[in-house]
């Protein structure tokens, strides 16, 4: 790891591993802050210990990480260290072997953990709980927990709760991470300060809990949620839990966000550097009424603005006149494209645009041909009617035939047409979660495996295709998904002020290169209040810029302004995607602002939005709104207008903004002058 130590030791009785230190390198040199210095009453030794991962038998009262029917009590067996640390524990009675695995992620402050189980006995083992990790955080007097919550169209709302004692729990039973919570949690001491984070690499059902123990320590447990449970482990079989990523930063939540951004970049590998094109998506403009001629008209207008990619969303395929049909029959609608979809795609590309398409491969409409041919491909329970959500059913991706069908369908589309972008959507959770003939199958894990295998296939077979992850907005933004996709759609809500709040939370968990965002019409679907075009553009520039407005309604003046904002965005895109991003103020501040600093520290881009009072030329005495930046105090900077600022001024007095009715958002580009003389560094804390 970059500058983090994570140290574990065996307890004296060798029945569990326990945490000794987790924090900045060197923190392990000294007595453990975790160890229990007192005696134990009424509970077991393991209950009072900072146990790393323990079965319910061993830790019955304070929170166990795994629960096997009949109970499990294990003992340390062996350890190996070849890059990964592997600690093996064995339960000789249940004939269960558990290997606790630890992998430090190079060049980051992230460690991943998972557990590998083997059943060496003659009986099937049944797991009611199957966590990936249990980990302690050295809070002193209770925890401040920060989590991201909401519902469809309000995803990623940042909330904090002070927990002096007791427990906190989040979960999803949706078969996807869901809109209500994301599998991510940040823990600080009740007084704030350093932050520790947990994020699960699992696109299925999950649970994360935090318990403040009587000693003041906080113990977090994270893992998949067996659903429907239990998970079975057959004799001779083995089972691997999803990985959980653990992050820490001495620099509070902003520092922790940077650690997660680093990790997203590691997960993206070389694809992180791939430019994310400015896209146009026609969903909000045309809905299901997709007609080739009108789409081409939109594409022409988009190309004139400097857009680089045209994406046709839902509604392009046979039988998809509304949300009651079509899913599963992935052939272009003859009527919409005059029987020649290929010619339509060529016309779009002749405008200099790349071409992209929306798909929802896991879904099927009951009136589709696919469902007529394969009614047994959906989740169902014999004798029970199927519940429709958005008028559709869900394919059982645990069935190899379904996964083959999806792979070959996508292959055909991608080989037939020059498609360079796929938006993968998923708009309904499983309801009748069953597979006739297989009552105890681990359907959640099988669906996840099928879904990930299709994404892996796309990556391997069509590496040029950029993939956007979407599940009715931000329903599937976990680390396993972002490791296999290039951008994610955080929410269907494109209302400008709501979007700022969504992006504020999103950027705590994920990096800007993943954050797709569109400029849409205002007043719009989600917000009837007008907002300037500039405000909407600056909001969408905070990540991967897209446009989703009905361009046929824009005036020549709006077109000209939009073209210049697209060009401005292209000039700062590499700093936004590849620099260090910091949300300085969310939308509850009078000026919301996000800062992006280039890797070399020479360019600082500040995006700012007026979310409070107007401050430019008020009728009564008043002052500019100020945003204190995260810059070196000893450097000096000049903005595009030639105004000069010392680093100390930007850092301690702040960058001034004067908001008027006509000026409600800004992009400030600051260039560092000469070389910095002090010892401060880029991305250091504000204030
Ligand atoms: C979901 C997505 C939207 C859009 C529609 C199309 O709701 O989140 O962006 O693609 O489906 O049906």
Instruction: Tell me the number of strands.
Output: 36
Ends: how far apart?
27 Å
Helix content: 10-25%
The CATH fourth-level homologous superfamily of the largest domain: Aldolase class I
Quote the average pLDDT.
96
Fraction in beta strands: 25-35%
**The first-level CATH class name of the largest domain:** Alpha Beta
Number of helices: 13
Helix/strand layout:
Blueprint: E1 4-10, E2 17-24, H1 45-48, E3 66-68, E4 75-82, E5 84-91, E6 96-105, E7 110-119, E8 125-137, E9 143-149, E10 157-163, E11 166-172, E12 184-189, E13 192-200, E14 206-212, E15 218-224, E16 231-233, E17 238-240, E18 244-249, H2 252-268, E19 279-281, H3 283-286, H4 292-305, E20 309-312, H5 341-350, E21 354-359, E22 363-364, H6 369-373, E23 393-394, H7 400-416, E24 421-424, H8 443-461, E25 466-469, H9 479-482, E26 487-488, H10 496-509, E27 516-519, H11 533-541, E28 544-547, H12 556-578, E29 580-585, E30 591-597, E31 603-610, E32 625-627, E33 636-639, E34 644-646, H13 647-653, E35 655-657, E36 665-673
Parallel strand pairs: 19-20, 19-28, 20-21, 21-24, 24-25, 25-26, 27-28
Antiparallel strand pairs: 1-2, 3-8, 4-5, 5-6, 6-7, 7-17, 7-18, 8-15, 8-16, 9-10, 9-12, 11-14, 12-13, 13-18, 14-15, 22-23, 29-30, 30-31, 31-36, 32-35, 33-34, 33-36
The structure holds alpha-D-galactopyranose (GLA).
């Amino acid at each position: 790891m970059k500058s983090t130590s994570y140290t574990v030791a065996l307890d004296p009785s060798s029945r569990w591993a326990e945490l000794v230190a987790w924090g900045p390198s060197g923190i392990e040199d000294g007595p453990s802050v975790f160890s229990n210095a007192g005696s134990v009453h009424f509970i077991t030794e393991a209950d009072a210990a900072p146990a790393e991962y323990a079965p319910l038998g061993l830790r019955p009262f304070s929170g166990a990480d795994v629960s096997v029917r009949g109970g499990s009590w294990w003992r340390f067996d062996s350890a190996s260290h070849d890059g990964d640390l592997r600690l093996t524990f064995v339960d000789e009675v249940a004939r269960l072997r558990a290997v606790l695995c630890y992998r430090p992620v190079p060049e980051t402050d992230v460690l991943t953990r998972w557990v590998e189980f083997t059943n060496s006995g003659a009986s099937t083992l049944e797991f009611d709980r199957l966590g990936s990790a249990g980990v302690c955080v050295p809070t002193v007097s209770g925890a401040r927990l920060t989590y991201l919550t909401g519902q469809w169209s309000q995803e990623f709302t940042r909330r904090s709760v002070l927990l002096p004692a007791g427990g906190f729990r989040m979960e999803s039973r949706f078969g996807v991470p869901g809109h209500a919570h994301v599998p991510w949690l940040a823990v600080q001491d009740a007084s704030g300060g350093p932050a520790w984070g947990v994020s699960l690499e699992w696109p299925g059902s999950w649970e994360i809990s935090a318990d403040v123990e009587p000693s003041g320590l906080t113990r977090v447990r994270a893992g998949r949620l067996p659903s429907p449970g239990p998970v079975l482990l057959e004799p001779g079989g083995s089972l691997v839990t999803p990985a959980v990523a653990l992050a820490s930063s001495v620099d509070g939540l902003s520092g922790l966000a940077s650690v997660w951004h680093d990790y997203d970049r590691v997960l993206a590998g070389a694809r992180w550097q791939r430019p994310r094109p400015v896209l146009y998506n026609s969903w909000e403009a045309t809905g299901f009424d997709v007609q080739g001629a009108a789409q081409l008209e939109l594409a022409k207008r988009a190309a004139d603005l400097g857009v680089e990619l045209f994406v046709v969303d839902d509604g392009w395929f046979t039988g998809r006149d509304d949300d009651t049909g079509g899913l599963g029959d992935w052939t272009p609608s003859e009527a919409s494209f005059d029987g020649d979809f290929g010619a339509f795609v060529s016309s779009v590309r002749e405008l200099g645009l790349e071409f992209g398409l929306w798909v929802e491969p896991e879904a099927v409409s009951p009136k589709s041909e696919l469902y007529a041919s394969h009614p047994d491909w959906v989740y169902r329970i014999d004798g029970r009617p199927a519940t429709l959500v958005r008028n559709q059913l869900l394919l059982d991706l645990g069935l190899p035939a379904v996964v083959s069908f999806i792979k070959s369908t996508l292959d055909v589309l991608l080989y037939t047409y020059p498609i360079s972008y796929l938006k993968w959507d998923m708009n309904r959770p499983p309801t009748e979660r069953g597979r006739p003939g297989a009552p105890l199958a681990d359907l959640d894990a099988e669906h996840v495996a099928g879904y990930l295998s299709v994404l892996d296939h796309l990556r391997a077979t069509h590496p040029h295709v950029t993939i956007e992850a979407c599940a009715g907005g931000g329903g599937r933004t976990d680390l396993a998904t972002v490791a296999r996709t290039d951008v994610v759609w955080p929410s269907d809500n494109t209302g400008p002020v709501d979007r700022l709040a969504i992006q504020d939370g999103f950027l705590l968990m994920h990096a800007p290169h993943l954050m797709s965002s569109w400029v849409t019409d205002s007043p719009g679907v989600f917000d009837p209040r007008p907002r300037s075009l500039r405000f909407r553009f600056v909001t969408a520039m905070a990540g991967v810029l897209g446009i989703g407005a009905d361009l046929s309604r824009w005036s020549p003046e709006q077109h000209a302004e939009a073209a210049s904002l697209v060009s401005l965005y292209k000039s700062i895109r590499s700093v936004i995607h590849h620099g260090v991003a910091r949300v300085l103020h969310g939308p509850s501040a009078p000026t919301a602002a996000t800062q992006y600093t280039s890797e070399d520290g020479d360019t600082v881009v500040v995006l700012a939005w007026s979310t409070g009072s107007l401050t430019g030329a008020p009728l009564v005495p008043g002052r500019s709104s100020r945003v204190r930046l995260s810059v070196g105090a000893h450097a000096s900077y000049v903005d595009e207008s030639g105004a000069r600022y010392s680093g100390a001024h930007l850092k301690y007095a702040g960058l001034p903004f004067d908001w008027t009715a006509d000026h409600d958002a800004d992009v400030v580009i600051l260039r560092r002058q000469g070389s910095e003389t002090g010892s401060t560094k880029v991305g250091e804390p504000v204030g």
